[in-house]
Write a structure and sequence with these properties.
alpha+beta; Glutamine Phosphoribosylpyrophosphate, subunit 1, domain 1; eight-stranded mixed sheet; four-stranded antiparallel sheet; binds aspartic acid
Length: 305
């Protein structure tokens, strides 16, 4: 028995602006990542391997705001954040503000497995990456025309952006349960378009955007990072299950549909518990998402049914 859920961000385009072809492209991107992660689980590998693989596929897809398709900072750079957590050992690894790493989730995992630290940032994280044999990509690797247009719209003060519709589109994440009952969570992002001052969001913060604990569940979040940090979203969901006796669905709904809206926190989460129950909930217009349990067909969706 295994389960995998992935997301490609909660800040989707309004339904009216999403053309049929674009929707097909997003669905194909989600499908490819889901299939890649499921293949890992079917082969008997760990939930950590599965979430890493699914997130790598999403990072390599320019449609999503992570890896190749990362959004631009106010100054026209790309600063990437990622985190991963192992629910069995509660070990975790995270990187933030990296600029030359093609797959930040792999670096986060290397921090977890091959350093004495949990979180590394900026130049130091890249120095560590070099010491572990990572190849650097040139910064131009992350320069995609669509993201550049989004930055220009932000810089021009386009009023429609105040609703955060495109400023934080497309963060990616995965949660999984493997055949041995181990949970894992992973999240990767370019953050918010036009961010300044080396801003870091919730995605690489253990307990905010990413958390996994075999005693409760694994969570990956997407949305307005500042609020998700303040609400300690991922850890809060785990705690409601572990100490409050909530089901996964109840814990997720309370946080996403009650706690976050009270703080004007736009976004959603994907989560899976130790019984393989999967929950994908959001309070925004949509959330790119997909899931599959070993015994069932894949589910892929963007908006509400
Ligand atoms: N949560 C991410 C951040 O604030 C953005 C997103 O999920 O779209 O950096």
């Amino acid at each position: 028995m295994f389960g995998l859920a992935i997301h490609g961000g909660a800040g989707t385009l309004p339904r009216a602006e999403m053309g049929a072809e674009m929707e097909l492209n997003y669905r194909a991107g989600l499908r490819a990542a889901l299939d890649a992660g499921c293949a890992v689980l079917q082969a008997g590998a760990s939930s950590l391997d599965a979430v890493t693989r699914a997130v790598v596929v999403l990072e390599d897809n320019p449609l999503f705001n992570a890896g190749r398709g990362a959004v631009f900072t106010h100054d026209g750079h790309n600063e990437l954040d990622a985190a991963i957590m192992d629910g069995k050992t509660l070990k975790a690894g995270a990187v933030c503000g990296v600029t030359h790493i093609r797959n930040p989730i792999e670096l986060a995992r290397t921090v977890m497995e091959h350093s004495e630290y949990v979180m590394l940032s900026g130049a130091g994280a890249e120095e560590f990456a070099l010491s572990r044999g990572f190849a650097f990509v040139p910064t131009s690797y992350f320069h995609t025309p669509e993201r550049w247009r989004q930055l220009e719209r932000i810089r021009s003060g386009d009023a429609r952006l105040s609703a955060l519709t495109i400023s934080h589109v497309g963060t990616v994440g995965a949660v999984a349960l493997d055949g041995e009952g181990r949970l894992a969570a992973a999240t990767s992002t370019g953050g918010m378009t036009g961010k300044r001052y080396n801003r870091i969001g919730d995605s690489p913060i253990i307990g905010a955007g990413t958390y996994a604990d075999d005693r409760s569940c694994a969570v990956s979040a997407t949305g307005h990072g500042e609020v998700f940090i303040r609400a300690a979203v991922a850890h809060d969901i785990c705690s409601r299950m572990r100490f409050g006796g909530r089901t996964l669905a109840a814990a997720v709904r309370e946080v996403v549909l009650e706690e976050l809206p009270a703080l004007q926190g736009d976004g959603g989460v994907i989560a899976i518990d130790r019984s393989g129950e999967i929950c994908m909930e959001f309070n925004s217009e949509g959330m790119f998402r997909a899931s599959r349990k070993s015994s069932e067909d894949a589910r892929i969706a963007i908006y509400r049914p």
